[in-house]
Design brief:
The chain is an alpha+beta fold and about 270 residues long. Helix content is about 25%, strand content about 45%. The protein is built from three helices and 14 strands. The chain is globular, with a radius of gyration of 23 Å. The N and C termini lie far apart (about 65 Å). About 10% of the residues have low confidence.
């Protein structure tokens, strides 16, 4: 009888330990996804500015010096154009030290834009790559390919296929983002300025972080980007891990600010974007 009681007691202790371990594992997964989502939300903001710069550089109406002025606040960026190579190449050089840019972020290093055709012409393409490139001291590597077309409603549209790695400053490890963004321009195409451009963005993708955390995401409500604002002003993205943990990132109702919310269905918290 005593032996049976000891066995039952041991089984109960083991079950309690396993239950606690599972609970801790789920909480850790939950926390990791929150941390990753917050970092990814910031990375979303950091790597779209270059698309706009490439589009301005591809516009035959805009001189190289004007493109540089559109990108950097103090004229620290330079733009050069190689019209003899195939494909053609535009080099955007932000210099070796941090350069204050139009979106209020600091950049250094170079962005290469290899292209065929011209801005907005269906069938034209541009591929962006990076050399020693940093945004707010976050290292950016990888590539982005832009393909131009027209939306079903007749608006200019570009499809951006990307594979980008972001390495935060003073941290070990990095974040990788892969996917596709379809950017429909609904305003501002009649001018060379970036400030009056307005885009609606849809798409989906995957991501991972050093250490094995992976996720998938889908834009639920089109993201609205305005050239006069450094952040996404509205729209939402749903993130999920292993089809189990799900979060919704909401950029708000149209105000130009660095605030967004993260919700798991029962709890909502506010985060600040870089």
């Amino acid at each position: 009888m005593k032996t049976n009681l000891l066995k039952l007691w041991a089984a109960g202790v083991m079950f309690t330990i396993l239950l606690g371990a599972c609970g801790r594992g789920e909480r850790n997964d939950d926390t990791l996804l929150d941390q990753f989502l917050e970092a990814d939300a910031g990375n979303e903001q950091l790597t779209q500015f270059e698309d706009d710069g490439a589009e301005a550089a591809l516009d035959s109406r805009v001189a190289d010096s004007e493109v540089a002025g559109l990108l950097s606040s103090g004229g620290c960026a330079t733009v050069t154009r190689d019209t003899l190579s195939t494909p053609r190449r535009i080099t955007i050089d932000f210099g070796a030290v941090n350069c204050l840019c139009r979106d209020g972020r600091y950049r250094r290093g170079m962005v290469y834009v290899d292209y065929t055709g011209q801005r907005g012409v269906p069938g034209s393409t541009a591929t962006l790559s990076y050399s020693g490139y940093f945004v707010n001291d976050r290292g950016i590597s990888g590539s982005r390919t832009i393909s131009y077309s027209s939306s079903p409603g007749g608006n200019p549209q570009r499809t951006n296929t990307y594979n980008i790695t972001v390495t935060p400053p003073n941290q070990s490890g990095s974040y990788n983002r892969q996917g596709q963004r379809v950017r429909e321009k609904i305003a501002g195409d009649g001018t060379a300025s970036l400030l009056d451009d307005v885009y609606l963005i849809s798409g989906s993708g995957t991501g991972s972080r050093t250490g094995g955390l992976t996720y998938s995401h889908t834009i639920l409500t089109p993201l609205r980007r305005e050239g006069s604002c450094a952040w996404t002003v509205s729209g939402s993205i749903q993130f999920s891990r292993n089809n189990r943990l799900t979060r919704t990132l909401d950029f708000g109702n149209g105000s130009c600010d660095d605030q967004a919310t993260v919700s798991n269905g029962t709890r909502t918290r506010t985060i600040s974007l870089p």
